[in-house]
Design brief:
257 residues, alpha/beta, Rossmann fold, six-stranded mixed beta sheet, binds adenosine-5'-diphosphate, binds magnesium ion
Length: 257
Amino acid sequence: MAIDAIISIKDFRKEYKKTVAVNNLNLKIKRGSFFGFIGPNGAGKSTTVNFIAGLVKKDKGELRFDGQIITESSYKYKGRIGFVLEKPMYLEKLTGKEFLHFTGQMQKIDLPTVKQRTDELLAFMELIEKQDELIEKYSAGMKKKISLAAAMIHDPDILILDEPFEGIDPVLVNKIKENLKLMVKNGKTILLTSHVLEIVESLCTDIAIINKGNLIYEGTVNALHEKFSRENLNLEEIFIKLIAPEQGEDRLSWIRE
Ligand SMILES: Nc1ncnc2c1ncn2[C@@H]1O[C@H](COP(=O)(O)OP(=O)(O)O)[C@@H](O)[C@H]1O
Ligand SMILES: [Mg+2]
């Protein structure tokens, strides 16, 4: 049976000068899944996420949303998605509060709802004290939090989160994780990249592993565990097993064993 893909990518390829960032990637993100996209630094995760966001010009490939091919002029589907990019997007000359008001209105939500959700998001993200400061003065973690708030304000069907928890303290990360789980329970779809594998393991139903631009696993988290069931490995151990043969030396030459 064909899977019901809310987003699908076919033969996506992107080169930067001499680097092949993503090499003919095929990916199907199932509707209603919590999809983890993992891989070492430089594997091609952000390039792929930015392609979905319409920010990377492809060399080759096809992007579909709800089965419809997306062209450079048909990015209307973006209203149904919330993005947190690795380099978070915000308007630095606005205050946190103004930015959420602006984003909410841009997403065509009625004004009372925009105001109510802005206040709630600022409180949730522990940004009330900073709500009237320009975002350019925010710390890196606060910038992540305001871009996460902006990605959620229109209650999108799909959330695409590229390393969304960087610089955010663990108590708040936990609260955010619980809300993301509920969103998926309520039928939303989430694509999450993270290099923190415990986060992916505790949240995701489906997973894709990419290394040097090549997809090396795609399937459910359960199926991945079953594949390695005899060895009883956790996700981190499986990841190391799959990726490590490609990586460099284990020990620095001047550090004795
Ligand atoms: N704008 C860019 N210009 C040149 N090289 C880039 C650019 N963006 C990414 N790359 C290269 O493409 C590869 C994949 O990067 P990226 O998608 O950011 O990986 P990841 O998010 O998995 O860490 C890396 O080798 C990176 O150096
Ligand atoms: Mg990245």
